[in-house]
Amino acid sequence: MRISISKWFSSGTPFVWFNAGAVAISIIMVIGLLGLLALRGLSHFWPADVMQANYTPPVLNGTSQPTEVIGERVENESVSSQQIVSSGIPVDESVPYYDRQLLKMGNRDVTGADFAWLLSSYISDVQYPENIVAMERREWGNFYGFLKGLRESGDDIALEGEAALWDEFELRLERTLDIQEDIFEIEKHQIGEVNYSLERLRLKERRLEIDSELTDEAIADIAQQREQFAEDYALLQQELVALNQDVDRDAAVFLAANGAEVEIDLADIVRAYRPNQMGVTAKIVTYFSKLGEFLVDEPREANTEGGIFPAIFGTVMMVLLMSIFVTPFGVVAAVYLREYARQGFITQAIRIAVNNLAGVPSIVYGVFGLGFFIYIIGAEVDQLFYPEALPAPTFGTPGLLWASLTLALLTVPVVIVATEEGLARIPRSVREGSLALGATKFETLWRVVLPMASPAMMTGLILAVARAAGEVAPLMLVGVVKLAPSLPLDGNYPYLHLDQKFMHLGFHIYDVGFQSPNIEAARPLVFATALLLVLVIAALNLSAVALRNKLREKYKSLEV
């Protein structure tokens, strides 16, 4: 028996099973994590039914009066009676556990809180009225209540029947949302373009003044252009004033919990629906509408509402720029170390240093980027190329360029090591054959060696993207901000604004999860954003993997 066990261990079978088990456990954990993120994040956008009930909380002396509550059930949990008593709620301690529900009541402007924990034992008269309305607002979060009337310019609108009232409300809300889109187009794009042109004109005038080239003819030309821009701005401003007056025309009157009457301007409403009377198809349509808003809109309400498109765009743009910077630097360094440098103590020391750089904490790179790229390089760039903008910095402040360069510096050791390994695997006979046919060393390198090593380069780039896309600490120092709704890529010259600050999915998760004043509202968005970050990184990596596999298949006969 002892001999057979010894042979079994010496055969390596236990280690094969051990490795297989470890891989299986890892796969299960990854799938479980993604499932948790999807369940907790994507379920947030489902239009849940809204409950109306009475809640009679326990008090020490006497009987409390029932309070009407309206809201969505978020989750249930069991808590010990001692924990409830310690929080100041007198319950029967002979009952070991109580069930409680987290209710999203919205109406923060009325009650002062979005969420509340209610003991299930003290909830009564639970109903799900079909005419209850759930609304998403531009400010103050969700609102739940009953539609009681409409007002136009302060005057009540006479309508007969609840169905007619709701139909008229939907028509006027759709009209208001269309006007809001026109206002957004003017404020965000048209007026923004005029302001950008005026700023460039001011900088041009300042530059001519610094260069002592501000002639009378140049002054007249600038004044004429400024006057034209001022006329365009005035016309847009008049149109914007008219639209704002028009959008503020309508309002709706709602009856909230405990009979509170609330008037809400339709301009403050993003979406309104009656979930309790919606069918499955209608809920699916609303679900994808809310999910689409999350993916393509800008954030609002301290990043706890709205969308995260600026963060998605900023993350992808930064990774692409980082890839453009890190690939040539890493490949050139690897080629020099492997193909040109004399192999000896110094070269070996450089390789050790490169490997050690991969283990340096990322925040150190952030501090280096802040000090070297921004305070030294950026300040010199401003002095040489943007003196007209001083003392306001252009590149002497955190931005997209410096963030990309900092992450390129962070990931260049990975690219160097992977490329060197690829170069080392190329058979010596390939190089010698190319040289024997009359090619120079550079031609051999450029036309034979580097194409054959391209799969290894792509492997290094994949590892670099996987690490850089999830970094947050260095980016907080060199370019990422909490809110930057203006994208670094637009229609204004030079189109790609490398000096502009940007949003990032990783920092957005940190900000919403740990800096939000309304943690219950922010929690599902943290899960949804984390899932989206994983998907973005996976999409970037899969694109690089597909390209690598294509290159590997092309040079498969050489077994590189």
Sequence-ordered SSE layout with sheet pairings:
Blueprint: H1 2-10, H2 13-42, E1 51-55, E2 67-80, H3 81-86, E3 97-104, H4 108-111, E4 115-119, E5 123-127, E6 132-137, E7 142-152, E8 155-156, H5 162-210, H6 216-247, E9 250-255, E10 261-265, E11 269-273, H7 280-296, E12 299-300, E13 305-306, H8 309-340, H9 345-357, H10 362-385, H11 400-424, H12 428-436, H13 441-468, H14 475-478, H15 505-514, H16 519-554
Antiparallel strand pairs: 1-2, 1-5, 2-3, 3-4, 6-7, 6-11, 7-8, 7-9, 9-10, 12-13
3D architecture notes:
- The protein has helices at 2-10, 13-42, 81-86, 108-111, 162-210, 216-247, 280-296, 309-340, 345-357, 362-385, 400-424, 428-436, 441-468, 475-478, 505-514, 519-554, and strands at residues 51-55, 67-80, 97-104, 115-119, 123-127, 132-137, 142-152, 155-156, 250-255, 261-265, 269-273, 299-300, 305-306.
- By secondary structure, the chain is an alpha+beta fold.
- The chain folds into 4 domains: 2-44; 48-153 and 252-278, no CATH class; 173-248; 317-506, MetI-like fold.
- The strands form 3 sheets. Strands 6, 7, 8, 9, 10 and 11 form a 6-stranded antiparallel beta sheet that branches. Strands 4-3-2-1-5 form a 5-stranded antiparallel beta sheet. A two-stranded antiparallel sheet has the order 12-13.
- A hairpin with a 4-residue loop joins β6 (132-137) and β7.
- It is flat.
